[in-house]
Specification:
Distance between the termini of chain A: 30 Å
Radius of gyration of chain A: 13 Å
Helix content of chain A: 40-55%
Strand order of the largest sheet of chain B: 7-11-12-3-13-14
Oligomer: heterodimer
Distance between the termini of chain B: 36 Å
Number of strands of chain B: 18
Radius of gyration of chain B: 59 Å
Largest sheet of chain A: none
Largest sheet of chain B: 6 strands, mixed
Number of helices of chain B: 25
Structural class of chain B: alpha+beta
Order of helices and strands of chain A: HHH
Largest interface: A-B, 31 and 30 residues
Chain lengths: 69, 813
């Protein structure tokens, strides 16, 4: 099955974000699917950055599974 | 030639759709990779293409681009209702049916519905000549990343939100700092700077000041309460005195009246009232119940009423006295309450004064010993007799002694409260400055994090699109070079317009100058072919197993040379796609196939008849000229004129082809309208003698494989000499010479009225027809249906599929 352009670019974005450590590791799971579905909202992006910039051990309850709402 | 494994649309059925006022069924030859639908303007070409768009892409077709129309309304053919509308296809053996749903076109059917890449004339213009954003729109179906663009927009929104919040934080910080600056200046610019001053103030202990303000505030409230209670008390005293005076006056009036009526008046009144009550109960009494004397009841009753009436003012005075006494009692009780209230309010005030931390309060001159009945040392004297005039007087004296400080304390309170409020304001704004600065720094970090992510997302998106456009540009260049070799145009480059989202630029070369917009320099036909080249390159790049390509009337007019190259390119590229469906009103294009100037075997040709409302869109199969001639030769009685005329047309086409290949000498004239006679006279005898056609035929399946592999490859040594392939050679000298001898029949029978023509026998007409058919069948390739037109072999002329060769390559010396 040929990948759609969205799928191709989503994979590249995830790889690049991973390499540059711009998003916390636990948030990377399922990120490609959300990119492909176009379902990420502004607040999701902010949460990623917020979590990534917090010192280790400060993550709250809702962040343990790494899922953005 | 044909890709036997390719999935193709086999049938298209329209009901109530646009021009299809009656049901239309179009069957496509699935053995042919290209379908050409020829029709004059208004015959229904766009209806068929829109129907493909409707069922394959669930789109409104060309109506979508027309702002003056409502697609839902005008998609329905005249006289039909939306419920009648449907478009069905059969593709690769499976059926889909599309209809007009509430939200637009909707197709039902199994998985694997084909996608139609459709290029219309309007899209070509938009692709080449429109503004960059419109140009992007024209190809966005191919290069757009809708979901990635969506999340990228959300990311940009997040950055905007964060930056807006950061700006707000900085503004709030600035406002707080300006306020501190103002306060600092008001206070005489103490300390190093306003922030240093503010920090000291914020750190200072304000508890004493708070207590002080609270204490003075409580004292003033208690003082006001006591003053108010005193006012209430004095009012109660005045009211009580007034009521008592009224009571005394009423009592005096009653006493005076009783003296006048006698001392027993009160007893007499009561006795008269009793007698009246008795008589009302015994109206027929004849004796007095007390003395047994005879009485006359009515007369006695009248006398009783008369006496009571005379004594009524005493009764009224009695009531007034009673009322006045009650009122005095009430006033007395109220006065007692007011006294207690007043004394209590003054008692509350006293400890507040004694315990106040305020210097101004502590400094007042009061001899507390004078108020011992009112106050003990520490607490409110709960046992104080509030009814005692001595106690009340002490309270009044104490209040008078304190009351004179009220204004002074009021000013003291205002001043200290202002100081406290200022301190609070300094503290709040100093904290705000620090908090907002931290917030702005945090938001700044967040914005930077988001911007870094945006660089990745945008970079990957743009990189992908630009890489794609680069790949497509290379493909366009290859295609365009095939169409316009050595013409000084091309080097087409598609690229995103920098810093402008969803905008695409096209750069090209014109006469050695690069990066020029083709719309400004290229001719119309060059732009047409450029549009098609870009579209085919895009369609190739994004081709999927279930896609067909549709070119809707994209070529308007091109010269012979370019038309030949275009057809060549189209057939070469045709193998890249499942199926190409093209429509045209350009007759010269269609006729190239009819006269075997193109590989008609690869093209299913459909011809649209004139449209009318009652008949709708109608079509028929396009006949090749040779097929037409074969048909008329079979018709009895012989249509001499028709057959002779069709022979002439076909022969002119074939001899023109030979004359072009061998550069035969023809009389020069402004327009190349040569007659059959011109052509036959131009054929040199040596050439006629040397003309030979070889056709490669397969003996076995392996032979067919070998022959198929000829396309795009040169035959390997010995490959064509084996048992699998045979070569059938035909010398053309005989038919050519016969045709030279018979050519006059065309003019005599097929073109003009003349008596000598009438003497030509049917057998001579038949002979001309058979020789014409013989020459055509000899020259035209049996496999691809094209005349040999390529000299790339260097030895002979080759047809497209390389199975038919025409010798010699050049005119014999």
């Amino acid at each position: 099955m040929t990948k759609t352009p969205d799928e191709i670019v989503a994979e590249r974005i995830v790889a690049s974000l991973t390499e540059q450590k711009l998003i916390p590791e636990h948030s990377l799971k399922g990120l490609a699917e959300k990119l492909i579905a176009g379902s990420l909202k502004a607040e999701d992006w902010r949460l990623f950055v917020d979590l990534n910039q917090r010192p280790e051990g400060e993550a709250g309850d809702g962040e343990e599974n790494g899922e953005a709402n | 030639m044909a890709k036997k494994t390719a999935k193709r649309i086999e049938r298209l059925v329209l009901r109530g759709f646009r021009g299809a006022t009656t049901e239309v069924t179009v069957d496509f030859d699935t053995h042919k990779p290209i379908v050409m639908i020829f029709g004059e303007n208004g015959s229904g070409k766009s209806t068929l293409v829109d129907a493909l768009d409707f069922v394959c892409n669930e789109e409104f077709g060309s109506l979508k681009d027309r702002s003056s129309t409502k697609p839902q309304k005008h998609l329905v053919s005249l006289g039909s209702s939306p419920g009648d509308l449907s478009v069905s296809i059969n593709y690769d053996g499976k059926d889909w049916r599309a209809y007009l749903a509430k939200n637009g076109p909707q197709a039902d059917g199994p998985v694997g519905r084909p996608m139609a890449h459709i290029l219309r004339r309007s899209s070509v213009l938009r692709l080449i000549e429109a503004q960059p954003n419109k140009r992007y729109e024209a190809i966005q179906d191919f290069i757009a990343l809708p979901q990635i663009e969506k999340v990228e927009k959300a990311l940009r929104d997040a950055i905007k939100d964060v930056e807006r919040q950061r700006e707000n934080a900085l503004l709030a910080r600035q406002q707080a700092e300006e306020l501190l600056q103002g306060l600092w200046e008001e206070e005489g610019r103490q300390g190093r700077d306003h922030m240093n001053w503010a920090q000291r103030k914020a750190d200072s202990d304000s508890a004493y000041l708070k207590d002080l303000v609270s204490s003075v505030n409580s004292i003033l409230l208690a003082l006001n309460e006591a003053i108010n209670a005193r006012t209430q008390l004095l009012g109660a005293v005045a009211a009580h005195d007034h009521d008592l005076e009224q009571q005394l006056l009423a009592e005096e009036a009653l006493t005076a009246s009783e003296n006048l009526e006698g001392q027993d008046s009160r007893t007499i009144i009561e006795l008269l009232r009793e007698a009246r009550n008795f008589l009302s109960k015994h109206p027929d009494a004849t004796e007095c119940p007390l003395c047994d004397q005879t009485v006359e009841a009515t007369a006695l009753g009248d006398r009783i009423e008369s006496r009571l009436s005379a004594m009524s003012h005493i009764l009224e005075l009695k009531d007034k006295v009673e009322a006045a006494r009650n009122k005095t009692n009430t006033a007395s009780a109220f006065l007692s309450h007011r006294r207690k209230e007043f004394v209590t309010s003054v008692q509350k005030l006293a400890p507040l004064l004694e315990e106040s931390p305020a210097d101004d309060v502590a400094a007042i001159d009061i001899d507390w010993a004078k108020y011992s009945n009112l106050i003990d040392n520490t607490l409110i004297n709960a046992t104080a007799d509030t009814g005692s005039l001595e106690v009340i007087q002490e309270a009044l004296d104490l209040l008078s002694a304190v009351e004179r400080y009220r204004e002074e304390w009021g000013e003291y309170l205002v001043e200290n409260r202002r100081t406290l409020e200022q301190l609070n304001a300094i503290r709040i704004n100093f904290n705000a400055v620090n908090e907002r600065r931290k917030q702005a720094e945090e938001l700044d970090r967040q914005a930077n994090g988001l911007i870094e992510i945006l660089k990745v997302v945008e970079g990957q998106r743009k990189g992908y699109v630009e890489d794609t456009l680069k790949t497509i540009s290379d493909s366009v260049e290859t295609l365009y070079e095939k169409l316009h070799p050595g013409e000084g145009i091309g080097k087409v480059r598609l690229f995103l317009k920098p810093n402008v989202p969803r905008s695409m630029e096209i750069g090209s070369t014109f006469q050695g100058v690069d990066e020029l917009p083709p719309g400004a320099y290229y001719s119309e036909s060059h732009l047409d072919t450029l549009g098609v080249a870009i579209f085919l390159a895009l369609a190739k790049h994004y081709n999927n197993p279930d896609a067909v390509v549709v070119l809707d009337d994209v070529i308007t007019s091109v010269d012979d040379v370019h038309m030949e190259r275009f057809i060549h390119m189209l057939h070469e590229e045709g193998d890249q796609f499942n199926q190409i469906i093209l429509t045209t009103h350009y007759r010269a294009w269609r006729d190239r196939y009819k006269y075997a100037r193109g590989p008609e075997a690869a093209v299913h040709m459909i011809e649209l008849l004139s449209w009318s409302h009652p008949k709708g869109v109608r079509h028929t199969r396009t006949k090749l000229v040779i097929d037409d001639l074969r048909h008329w030769v079979q018709v009895e009685p012989l249509e001499r004129q028709v057959v002779a005329s069709k022979c002439g047309l076909l022969l002119e086409s074939l001899l023109d082809y030979i004359a072009l290949r061998y550069r035969c000498k023809l009389p020069r004239q402004p327009e190349p309208n040569y007659t059959l006679g011109d052509f036959t006279n131009a054929m040199d005898k040596k050439l006629i003698k040397a003309l030979k056609v070889e056709k490669l035929k397969n003996n076995t399946e392996e032979g067919e494989r070998i022959l198929e592999s000829l396309i795009g490859n040169s035959p390997r040594a010995g490959e064509l000499d084996g048992p699998h392939v045979r070569i059938e050679a035909t010398a053309l000298q005989s038919p050519m010479e016969d045709i030279s001898k018979l050519a006059w029949i065309r003019n005599q029978v097929g073109c003009h009225f003349n008596l000598s023509g009438m003497s030509v026998s049917d057998s001579d007409v038949f002979k001309l027809a058979h020789k014409t058919i013989e020459l055509t069948e000899a020259l035209v390739c049996d496999a691809c249906g094209e005349l040999p037109q390529s000299d790339k072999s260097g030895l002979y002329w080759n047809c497209r599929c390389k199975r038919t060769r025409l010798y010699p390559l050049n005119q014999p010396a």
